[in-house]
Amino acid sequence: MTILTSKILLQLLLIFSTTRFPIIISTNDQSLVKCHDKDKEILLIFKIGILDSSDCPTSTWSTNTDCCIWEGVTCDNATGRVTELDLNDSRLKGQITLSVLELEYISHVNLGLNDFDAIIIPINIHNITHSSKLVYLDLTIIGIDLNKATNWLQAMAKLPSLLELQLNYCNLSNFMTNPPIEHFNLPSLKTLVASQKNFTSSIPDEFFNCIKNVTYLDLN
Asked: Where is the protein situated, by its record's location annotation (predicted)?
């Protein structure tokens, strides 16, 4: 080995010994943090009213699995808190409970295009104020006659950050007067889509005062 070759090898060894190489760790886990116990409890309460079948997403929800891996559920990978619930067109039947609005960090809820036969409002409606981050709620064609439901509009009024509300074909023919319109107070709402087959009541001026920040309105 020549002197020149030895010097080159020595220099290379010196470079490698003084250079720090990053260690890259890869994981396929969608969530490194397990779901929050309170969020899991709320989702399981929601599931109670659903008539489970093997082909619906909630059939994968169980007490012994992490709710962050449940179908239709999205969690924040850093905190394990539920941020989205998407059960759109999932063949769900039974009762829909708005206990999901008690999820503290949820931002999107899509329950549209299902076939529920009743809507259940939490006994303690004040707990819904926890959903201060909810910006999107879709209850389109969920099979429920909201004219016969009570307190649902008061529940909506507990969502201060709600930007978009979808209520297409929920049998709201007289929702301007039942429940009273003063409960319809959504200061952040920008989009309201509530197309119905027919409205049997006129639209009072108070309604437009309640949605003065709305930029898109569809009551076709």
From this structure: Membrane
Q: Structure pTM?
A: 0.79
What distance in Å separates the CA atoms of residue 182 and residue 25, rounded to the nearest whole number?
55
- Kindly report, residue by residue over 59-113, the tens digit of the pLDDT: 989 999 999 999 999 999 999 999 999 999 998 999 888 888 889 999 999 999 9
